[in-house]
Amino acid sequence: MDAFSLDNPHHLLASIWFAIIGLFLIFYVILDGFDLGMGILSLAAPNEQYRGAMMSSIGSIWDANETWLVIVGGTLFGAFPLVYGTVLHGLYIPITLMLLGFIMRGVSFEFYALSSRKKLWGIAFGLGSLLAVIAQGFALGGLLNGIKIENGLFTGDVFDWFSPFSLMVVLGVIAGYSVMGANYMILKFTGELQKHAYARSKIFSGWMLFFAGIVTIWTPLQYPSILERWFTLPNFFAFALLPLAALFCFYMLFRALARCEERAPFIWSLLIFMFSFIGLAASLFPYIVPGAITIDQAAAPTNTLVFMLLGIGMLIPVMIAYNIYQYSVFSGKINPDAPSHHD
């Protein structure tokens, strides 16, 4: 069925909302990915002063970044309510662990600033970040591995999300977020901490490429429909562009790191995530739950989709403008060796 057919307005609106929610997910992964990655990297900070500088660098932006996850949850509930009645039953444990990680992270961040036991709360902040990332990886891996659904009801096991495939996804997500965190550190810091970030980015970029390759090969092998879509002419030429673009970005990322460039590594890592996510969405469409539920089956009534589209159309420009203003205000470099952490 044509995703943009005017003969079926419900399908057209469902397709639009599929694209919108995908865009929101990209915003979330890009914006919250680097500060979660920095939280993971803070566990291996050279000293407590550097850990404090790392936490200080995201102090004014990390909570706003997570707003996009709230938007994803709200719009998913409104546009595709059937997903809540099926997928969340199978992913309760990783989603709960993710929320616990966020809580642990937020509490630790606030206590770190005022506590005399900064190392304790700094480590708790890093562990909370790691827990949230692991949970997100298992949620994504569990979804891609398949949610058992019959007659619109979840019929699987509570631990179906845990599998060798989802473990590969978890390791890939940890590596990917760590790359984004390290590249943001390159962009934000000077001196020894920036050199530390270059070294970490090179290591985790290699691991991200390795696990991304495994997941990219493994995913279509689980779903014959995706495998057929990828390797059927002329689809093959269109789908081949996305992994090729991602590989080119990996090459440019390694090249930028070797040249010790500051802005380029962060930009190339963002493009890697963007091309990877677009490729995943294009592979799954029109399914919103792989192999089980299509967007038409999961979508809310047409009137609801139209009403939400009008509301979100007014909200999103405001959020984007706020994010742009926020990052422009706090765009300066940080000297981690200075007592105040700022030049």
Description:
It is a single chain. This protein is an all-alpha fold and 343 residues long. It has a single domain, classed as Up-down Bundle (Formate dehydrogenase/DMSO reductase fold), CATH 1.20.1630. It is built from 14 helices and four strands. It has a two-stranded antiparallel ribbon. Strands 3-4 form a two-stranded antiparallel ribbon. Strand 1 and strand 2 form a beta hairpin. The N and C termini lie far apart (57 Å).
Side by side, the strands of the main sheet go 1-2
Strand content range? under 5%
Low-confidence stretches: none
What characteristic shape results from the CA principal axes? globular
Total separate domains = 1
End-to-end CA span? 57 Å
Overall CATH architecture: Up-down Bundle
Oligomer: single chain
List how many beta strands DSSP finds.
Answer: 4
Number of helices: 14
Mean pLDDT: 85
The biggest sheet, with number of strands, parallel, antiparallel or mixed sense and barrel status, is: 2 strands, antiparallel
List the keywords:
Formate dehydrogenase/DMSO reductase fold, globular, 14 helices, two-stranded antiparallel sheet, 3% strand, 343 residues, 77% helix, single chain, mainly alpha, 4 strands
In short:
With 343 residues, this protein is an all-alpha fold. The chain has 14 helices and four strands.
Please give the structural blueprint.
Layout: H1 9-41, H2 48-57, H3 62-65, H4 67-79, H5 81-90, H6 92-114, H7 118-145, E1 149-150, E2 153-154, H8 164-188, H9 191-222, H10 224-231, H11 235-258, H12 264-284, E3 287-289, E4 293-294, H13 295-298, H14 302-329
Antiparallel strand pairs: 1-2, 3-4
Helix pairs in contact: 1-4, 1-7, 1-8, 1-12, 1-14, 4-5, 6-7, 7-8, 8-9, 8-12, 9-10, 9-11, 11-12
